[in-house]
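Sequence, please.
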């Protein structure tokens, strides 16, 4: 059987263009221009680095994906025919924006970008067209496009703070405009030393900007003497040494601002107790304090002393739960020129049977936008500020923590169409993609790029063509049936805190403790060592109906998700000879199935354990012990069945900030943990009942 070592998936991420995509059985139509060997890619004589990079990229695409040889030149006289001519044109009508482009296809091809980034997007568009066509055929005529969003920022799915050139190129192909770092200081990220300027220089040749989110204690209040000098040094040093940074994101929990709003508590959060008794107030990092605008104004002033065009993004992620009136008032008082980032679907309520729930973090169960995002987008439009969404449209929500993307295309299509409407109605102009988990290219990322390009296109038609290109023309109907089932399955995934920060975050390596809270050895190189993710969160308070009342409904909901995932797998496994992409899709489906089983078992174990803690009599204790043993044995079998899945595809079980949570090592640790419970704990419970 095919086996991969940990991190082998990175080899795929470094393959910019898919090999041998051309289908020789497809013939051109009458209105199509045929590219063959010997075409010239003609750059302007003064082409900049972005244009040179993308011209060579397109040459590689033709060779790798379409089996054609082309030549690149700056000397137009060399090419008298078979020309793909690149150039700048700042008069593209309504598409005259950065990254806008016009493509004219007759007997030759002309790609005109509003800027060099537009030239790049134009050539990437030609690649996208040929990818859908599965042949080097281009429809004649004139077409003009531009991205719907000015900004699409992303974190790395390759590894925390890791951006090799080939991966940067893949992000550029997907329309990503900016990459991010979570930093402590100049050239210091949460993983250690990183040369910010060097990363900028490499990213810039792909037209990608670099932004940072600062994790540091903002201990000086803006009203204190010397406050401006304090923030001039904090931010001035960063932007003086790294003048290429294009954006700065301010997030409540990262800033830990020392607010004086009497409604908020102290910062850091551990100060919000007296003699071990909580005060009941939340730290300013999690509250829409009335003096946040003063801090933003001071930071803005400090940054603009070094660079006037930095995009300062103020993120309201931490207080989407708060009353709309307080959140909107904060936005109204922000300084001119900042951008506001709000999460697309977080905090949105939903119902399960007769219980009420609220989304913990990011989910495709709800296409969105939610009421929290909607209120802030409207407020930004009224205030004249840029509105961004933490959108996660590249396919990675927190429904499953350690799979590369959520294969629910029909849920994604709803989300993309709703974003189109948000752009038109409220002027939303930016998106944060794949928060925390990073971008992993897939047919979902391709679908999003088509969706977020003006003018609109029929996404159902695009999806079917993408399925043909990824999984085989002969398998389109089969895969599409499965994708309908899986899209429905995601409407039954439960986006609660105890799922997204528990079994669904970790995968089948999630432990089942009856009394302990131990966790496996953590990767010493991981950005985050979240022991908390391995412990039960069921006893904590969460928004919505009491956890114990809601859990049985959640189990029934997840049983529906599990059944739909299984039905999709049964459909996919009718394909006799799946290609490599389809084999990985099926394998990932089984990993989703196994993770859902773990999630159901975790809830069942929680209920059994709670019945054991408050039994009516000895017989109930014994019955609970029997139930816990049944769950543990079933989960042990489920865990064992996961091992070949993660060995088949090394991206499964991996999350960039935590590294591997569910690889073979993690699963074998889980088996030993379950054996301990079965051999030592359960017999002890029975002895106690009989004493």
């Amino acid at each position: 059987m095919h086996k991969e070592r940990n991190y082998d998936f990175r080899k795929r991420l470094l393959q910019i263009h898919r090999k041998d995509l051309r289908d020789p059985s497809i013939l051109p139509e009458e209105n199509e221009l045929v590219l063959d060997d010997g075409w010239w890619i003609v750059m302007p004589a003064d082409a900049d680095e972005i244009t040179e990079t993308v011209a060579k990229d397109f040459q590689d695409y033709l060779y790798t994906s379409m089996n054609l040889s082309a030549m690149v030149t700056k000397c137009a006289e060399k090419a008298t025919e078979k020309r793909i001519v690149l150039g700048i044109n700042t008069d593209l009508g309504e598409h005259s924006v950065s990254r806008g482009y016009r493509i004219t296809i007759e007997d030759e091809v002309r790609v005109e970008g509003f800027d060099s980034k537009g030239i790049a997007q134009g050539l990437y568009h030609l690649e996208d067209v040929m990818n859908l066509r599965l042949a080097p055929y281009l429809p004649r005529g004139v077409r003009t496009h531009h991205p719907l969003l000015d900004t699409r920022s992303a974190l790395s799915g390759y590894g925390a703070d890791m951006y090799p050139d080939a991966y940067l190129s893949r992000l550029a192909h997907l329309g990503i405009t900016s990459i991010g770092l979570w930093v402590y200081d100049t050239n210091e990220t949460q993983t250690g030393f990183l040369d910010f300027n060097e990363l900028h220089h490499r990213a810039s040749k792909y037209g990608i900007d670099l932004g940072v989110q600062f994790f540091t204690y903002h201990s000086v209040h803006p009203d204190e003497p010397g406050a401006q000098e304090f923030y001039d040094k904090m931010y001035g040093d960063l932007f003086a040494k790294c003048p290429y940074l294009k954006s700065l994101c301010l997030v409540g929990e990262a800033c830990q601002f020392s607010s004086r709003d009497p409604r908020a508590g102290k910062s850091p959060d551990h100060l919000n107790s007296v003699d071990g008794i909580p005060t009941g107030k939340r730290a300013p990092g999690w509250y829409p304090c009335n003096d946040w605008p003063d801090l933003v104004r001071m930071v803005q002033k400090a940054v603009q002393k070094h660079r006037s065009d930095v995009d300062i993004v103020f993120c309201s992620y931490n207080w989407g739960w708060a009353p709309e009136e307080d959140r909107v008032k904060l936005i109204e008082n922000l300084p001119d020129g900042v951008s506001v980032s709000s999460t697309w679907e977080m905090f949105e309520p939903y119902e399960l049977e007769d219980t009420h729930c609220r989304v913990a973090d990011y989910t495709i169960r709800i296409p969105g936008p939610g009421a929290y995002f909607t209120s802030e987008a409207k407020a930004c439009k009224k205030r004249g500020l840029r509105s961004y969404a933490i959108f996660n449209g590249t396919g990675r929500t927190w429904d499953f923590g350690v799979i590369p993307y959520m294969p629910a295309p029909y849920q994604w299509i709803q989300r993309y169409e709703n974003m189109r409407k948000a752009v038109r109605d409220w002027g939303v102009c930016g998106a944060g993609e794949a928060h925390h988990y990073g971008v992993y290219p897939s047919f979902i990322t391709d679908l999003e790029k088509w969706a977020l390009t003006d003018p609109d296109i029929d996404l159902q038609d695009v999806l079917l063509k993408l399925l043909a290109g990824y999984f085989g023309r002969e398998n389109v109907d089969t895969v599409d049936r499965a994708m309908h089932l899986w899209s429905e399955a995601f409407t039954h995934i439960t986006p609660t805190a105890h799922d997204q920060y528990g079994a669904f975050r970790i995968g089948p390596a999630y432990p089942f403790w009856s009394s302990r809270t131990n966790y496996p050895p953590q990767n010493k190189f991981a950005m985050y060592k979240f022991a908390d993710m391995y412990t039960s969160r069921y006893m904590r308070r969460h928004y919505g109906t009491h956890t114990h009342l809601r859990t049985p409904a959640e189990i029934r909901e997840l049983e529906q998700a599990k059944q739909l995932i299984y039905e999709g797998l049964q459909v996919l496994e009718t394909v006799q000879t799946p290609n490599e992409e389809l084999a990985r899709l099926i394998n990932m489906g089984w990993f989703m199935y196994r993770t859902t089983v773990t999630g159901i078992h975790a809830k069942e174990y929680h209920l059994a354990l709670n019945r054991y803690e408050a039994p009516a009599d000895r017989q109930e204790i014994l019955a609970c012990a029997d139930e816990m043993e049944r769950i543990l044995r079933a989960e042990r079998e489920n865990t064992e069945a996961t091992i070949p899945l993660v060995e088949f595809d090394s991206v499964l079980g991996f999350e960039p900030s935590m590294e591997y949570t569910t690889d073979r090592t993690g699963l074998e640790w889980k088996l030993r943990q379950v054996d301990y419970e079965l051999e030592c704990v359960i017999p002890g419970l029975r002895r106690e009942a009989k004493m």
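The longest strand covers residues 178-185.
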